[in-house]
Amino acid sequence: MDLPSNTINREYGTSLKFEAISQPVGLINCNELYPLVNSIFRDFEIDHLDRMELEDTQIVIRKVQKGYERSSPWLQKSVVHNDPVDAICDLTVDLIHAFVADHPSYLCLHSAAALFKNGLFLFPSTYRSGKSTLALHLAFNGVPLFTDDALPISSKNDGLATGLFPRIRLPLPNCVTHNFRNFIERRTAIGNDRYCYVSLDQTEQPPYGTKEQISAVILLNLDMQSSTQKVDHVKKKDVLKEIILRNFARHNKAIDIVDRIYSIAQHADCFRLTYSDPNEAAKLLKDTFS
Fold first, then answer.
1. How far is it, in rounded angstroms, from Cα 45 to Cα 47?
2. At 251, is the pLDDT very low, low, confident or very high (cuts 50, 70, 90)?
């Protein structure tokens, strides 16, 4: 959408309405972000509205001299990114928070999740743990991917596919294969020198709204000194602790959250994956569980 020339020195607002979030995202003087946002979701309705009322928005992105400034209830102070892709990457965190706020019965884990023959497998882990690289290798090897980063979980302990394309950090690690590099290059939806979003098709990533029962939790142990990939059983108490640490939906009572997480751990098979090569690890998981 082109802006009239007489709007250059004043604020011009439009908004994005996401189908799963009650309040729109406000865009002020930065309509160029809309096609970038739209390109990182599949099978997800995003309406671009020509008008915006600030009182109806939780998240607002404003074009400023230094880049794109975002404010939201989940930020202690506004943040600015000079690169539009970085601005979109950071926006997705607020979108997840907004979804959870609108759906208070949901937990939300910092976790990858993939669909195996026996159900949904979770890979809870912290930032920079290799989970997105492993998750994309699962999709590359034919295991459908629910998410590489954040998984909403319903009151019935079903994982919900978000429809958000996975994001991988660049440059790719030296251990990945030539074929995987080509896969990432061919499927890049948007990217910069730090990240890229990878466009997956319907066989590789279920559409938004797909739900599956959680059947296993796999803790990740990325060990670059290890020459083999292995999957071992792990105690449920270790899984329980990891899931508690990775939950960032904190609006319900603490005891209720712990009860929900305890139920997930108790009804899931629990493993630890020790690996150094994400492609070989993905093949091992596929051979073992599919």
1. 6
2. confident
Nearest Cα to Cα of residue 212 among 263, 153, 124, 163: 153
Fold (CATH) for 107-289: Rossmann fold (3.40.50)
Nearest to 29 by CA among 89, 74, 87: 87
Sequence ranges of the domains in the chain: 5-102, 107-289
| Confidence grade of residue 64 (pLDDT, cut at 50, 70, 90) | very high
Report whether 57 contacts 25 (CB < 8 A). Answer: yes
The pLDDT, as a whole number, for residue 11 is: 66
Which position has the token pair 């997480």? 261
Cα(290)–Cα(285) distance, integer angstroms: 8
Which token pair is 243? 């899931």
Condensed to tens digits (0 to 9), the pLDDT of residues 120-137 reads 999 999 766 789 999 999
- Calpha distance 218→143 (Å, rounded): 15
pTM for the predicted model, two decimal places: 0.92
Check whether 9 has a pLDDT greater than 70: no
